[in-house]
Design goal:
flat, 3-stranded antiparallel sheet, alpha+beta, about 325 residues
Length: about 325
Amino acid sequence: MHVCVFLQHEEASIKMFDYLLEENGLKPVMEQYGLEIKDKKENDLVFIKGMIDDTQKKTAQHKQYPGREKEKSFLYEIVSNKETGIDVDKFDYFARDCHHLGIQNNFDHQRFIMFARVCDVNGSKHICSRDKEIENLYDIFHTRHSIHRRACQHKIKMAVEIMIKDALLLADKDPYIQIEISNGNGTSEKVPLSKAKDKMEAYIKLTDQVIERILNSSSDSLKEAREILHRVMTRDLYRCVGQATKKEEPKMSGEMRESLNKMVKGILEGGEGEFEVIVVPLDSGKEDNDPISKAFFYRKDNPNKAIPIAEPEVKKKHKQEKLVRMRTAHKTRLTKQ
C-alpha cells in the first residue's frame, strides 16, 4: 500500500524560499538593500513568509502580524488572502491560464487595483473595494469556476494526472529513479521520489526528466510504470465510465463498490476490472460559502468607512457543486464505448 503525503503549495513555497536563501547566499545581498533579516521575530524574512502563507500571522494578542506592526495588517491580504480569496496569486494565474486555454477572463484586475483602498475594520487595516465593484469581484470567482470546470478538473486532464501519479508510485522504490543529493560533507545520498518533498535539493529536480527516465529505462521493475506512461503518450487513457452531480457525501462501502462493479461488468474486458470513485469539487474556493460576504467596501461619499456587503446583495452565485466520477484504473480496458 502506498501512502501519499502532499505539501500545500504555500508550505512548499516557504521551504523553497529558505533553501534558495542558503543555497544562493542571498541573505548578505538582502542586507545590502536594507532588508532586516537577523534572527528576531520582527524582520523582513518573517514578513515575506507571512505574505506567502497568511496563517502564520495568527499569533498572540498585540503582535498579531509577525514582521510588521498591526497598522500594516492589510499587507497580508495581497499575496495570499484566506478570508476572501481575492489576491494577486489569482490575478496572475487567471491571466496566464485564460490566455493559454483560450478562455475569456472577465475579471479586470487593473480596475480592482485602481479602486482598492485601505480602511479601518474593527481596529485592523483591510483592503476594501468601491461598492460599485461588487460585480467585478464576483467575476473573480466566476472565472475560477470556469477554469476548474473546463481545465483543472476536466475529466481528460484528471485521467492524465492520475496515470502519472500511478506511474510515479510504481517507480518510487526503484533505485534507478532515486534522486542523488549532497549531504554537505563531501558525501551524497539517494532520495526516493516520495521523500523528495522533504529535501529541497531533491525537490527542485522533480522535473519532466523523471518521466523521461522512466520511459527510457529498461529495468524490469519499471515495466508497469513504463506501460502507464506509454498509454499517456498514446492517449490510451483511463476512461470516465460515468459522472453525476453529488447530492450527499458518498460512502464507499463494500456494498456500494460491489454494486458499482456489477453496473460496469458488461463493459469491462472479461467482466472484471479496477475502478475508482472520485469526488470533484467545483466552487468559489470557499466551498458553499459566498466569499464576497467576507469582503469590505466603501462608498464614494464616505471613502474612509468600511462596510460589509448588504445581505440582500449576497447573490450566492457560486454555490458549491460536486461531481462524482467513476473511472477505470490500471490494467482495465473497456470493450464498449
